[in-house]
Amino acid sequence: MHHADMPPFGDATWQLVYTKARAERWVELNLRRQNFLTLLPLVRGRAGFQPLFPRYVFVGIAPEASARPIAGTRGVQYIVHFGTQPARVPTDVLVDVSSRMDAHGVVQLEKADPMDPLFAKRARERTRALLMFAEAGFRVKSA
Predict the structure, then answer these.
(1) Nearest to 35 by CA among 2, 73, 78, 90
(2) Helices (H), ranges, the chain
(3) What pLDDT does residue 28 have?
């Protein structure tokens, strides 16, 4: 997603989906085709551009839309839940992530605060931080 095409965060309810391996872009496209809002931040890797959070895509559900089709979307393995409810991503987290993206949706990790685990150099550390924040209900705001 290009930064100029950033979705309006305020009105939607944002959740996190877990995808099949290396299917993040495919899932994002499939969700957008169903008129869901999506956010897939990328980082520059050895083999080109890769997702900031491997196997995860943020998806926004408009107030008048149903979230039911998300679980059946091709490439989606499941919606991240903690307990019986889907983990909801607060707008603050999405704004923080998107503010670090360039015009092509790429996050520059070199410029990020090294003390912020959500933007750590290693993908495993970023993903672990993302899940810890989700489990805590995303009450922890990144720097």
Answers:
(1) 73
(2) 24-33, 68-71, 91-99, 123-135
(3) 97
Calculate mean pLDDT across residues 106-120. 74
Give Cβ neighbours of residue 105 (< 8 Å, ≥ 6 apart): 1, 2, 3, 40, 41, 42
d(CA 136, CA 93): 13
Model confidence at 6, pLDDT cuts 50, 70, 90, reads low
CA dist., res. 110 & res. 119, Å (int)? 9
Q: Residue 34: is its pLDDT beyond 90?
A: yes
Q: Which residues pair with 59 in a beta bridge?
A: 15, 38
Rounded Cα distance between 59 and 69, Å, is: 12
49's tokens: 């551009």
Please tell me the pTM assigned to this model.
0.82
- Distance CA(127)–CA(78), nearest Å, equals 16
CA distance 27 to 111: 28
